[in-house]
Specification:
Heat Shock Protein 90, 7 strands, 59% helix
Length: 286
């Protein structure tokens, strides 16, 4: 009677199982690598798309103020020849105002592009110093005066200690972007309100306007880079300002909130915890 080798038979399925397990592992690893590669590819596509958007917006946004500067310069040259002294002075003032406003628009746009690059590189590091908040905002409002629409008014009110300990450069860029937006999206003859309130431990900054407002749906994406609300397509802009504002605010451990609705204006409220060193310095100064 022939003997059957049970041991050999039992080993065969085990070996086959091991082969199947190895194959499954290889397949799973390949699938994982494919998914990783796809994610990297998708991320690269997003980055390339953003770069193209940035280049396109930069080209458009920088071309407009530069064209205005050039045409105003030509008009200045022409008026100096054609008009009498009194008429000439009026026209010169108008054209000089346009030049200054365009240069400021260009400067803000360039600052935002530089800020975007710094944020992407993780290079936003606040440099805290003691400064006068009212003086900083007062100087800023003088600079933006030429960009205001006809009849627009900016009312600034402060309460509390004027000396604070924050990064003055970051705060200036924050206020400048918020005020520029308020001017841009508000009608002529309207009032823009700025309020600052300081206590022993915090600074609350509010910028409110009576402009076109922001819908609830748009507010969900308001602080994303390059995002522009549906009702702003006909108004010049890059979609970077509020992204910069939020990034700079968070860099100083602050928070930002928005209250708005369509055609009912917009109010941005920013809250910062003031450094303990500032309180000590303020106490010693008074």
């Amino acid at each position: 009677m022939e003997k059957i080798n049970i041991t050999r038979r039992s080993k065969a399925p085990t070996a086959l199982t091991l082969v199947n397990v190895k194959q499954q592992r290889i397949i799973q690893e390949l699938q994982k690598k494919n998914r990783d590669l796809q994610r990297m590819l998708d991320h690269e596509k997003v980055l390339n798309k953003q770069k193209l958007q940035l280049l396109s917006m930069a080209s458009h946004e920088l071309r407009i103020p530069l064209s205005t500067i050039l045409s105003s310069a030509f008009l200045l040259q022409r008026y100096s020849i054609i008009y009498s002294h009194e008429k000439q002075q009026e026209q010169l003032n108008t054209q000089v105002g346009r030049i200054i406003a365009s240069v400021q628009t260009l400067s803000t746009t360039l600052n935002n592009f530089m800020g975007l690059h710094a944020i992407g590189e993780g290079k936003i590091t606040p440099y805290y110093s003691l400064f006068n908040l009212s003086d900083l905002i007062g100087c800023l409002l003088k600079d933006v005066k030429v960009t205001q629409k006809k009849g627009q008014r900016i009312a600034y009110q402060h309460s509390g200690n004027t000396l604070i300990y924050l990064d003055s450069s970051l705060l200036k860029n924050i206020v400048l972007n918020l005020v520029n937006n308020a001017i841009k999206f508000s009608p002529p003859g309207s009032t823009i309100k700025i309020e600052t309130n300081t206590s022993a431990t915090s600074l609350i900054l509010k910028v409110a306007d009576n402009g076109i407002g922001i819908s609830k749906d748009n507010q969900q994406h308001l602080f994303e880079q390059f995002y522009r609300c549906e009702n702003t397509s006909s108004i010049q802009g890059t979609g970077l300002g509020l992204f910069i504002v939020k990034s700079y605010t968070e860099a100083m451990n602050g928070i930002i909130q928005c209250q708005s609705d369509i055609d009912k204006g917009c109010t941005f409220t920013l809250t910062f915890n003031l450094k303990t060193k500032a309180n000590l310095l303020n106490t010693s100064l008074f």
